[in-house]
Design goal:
The protein has a two-stranded antiparallel sheet. The protein is mostly helical. It contains 3 helices and 2 strands; from the N terminus they run H-E-E-H-H. Strand 1 and strand 2 form a beta hairpin.
């Protein structure tokens, strides 16, 4: 897997939020954006950098949510076969 240098700030920020998921009865449904914005506010970003980084983190979030949903479906399918 290759990680482009432009994506490193978003990946680093996303991984720093790994314990900051909003969770309901159906599992995780999104990141706690209060924490995301707090961290981003401390980064000294320009307005354009702020918006770009937020968009990149949203892509990471969406990918993680899709993977979690797939994992949940696979786990449920396995438990039904038992």
């Amino acid at each position: 897997m290759h990680l482009y240098a432009d994506n490193v700030p978003a990946i680093n920020l996303f991984t720093s939020l790994i314990t900051q998921w909003r969770v309901g009865m159906g599992g995780a449904y999104g990141l706690d954006y209060n924490v995301l914005y707090h961290k981003m506010d401390r980064m000294g970003l320009t307005p354009d950098q702020y918006l770009e980084l937020e968009a990149h983190v949203r892509v990471c979030e969406e990918g993680a949510l899709q993977q979690m949903a797939q994992n949940s479906e696979e786990t449920q399918a396995k438990s039904k076969r038992k």
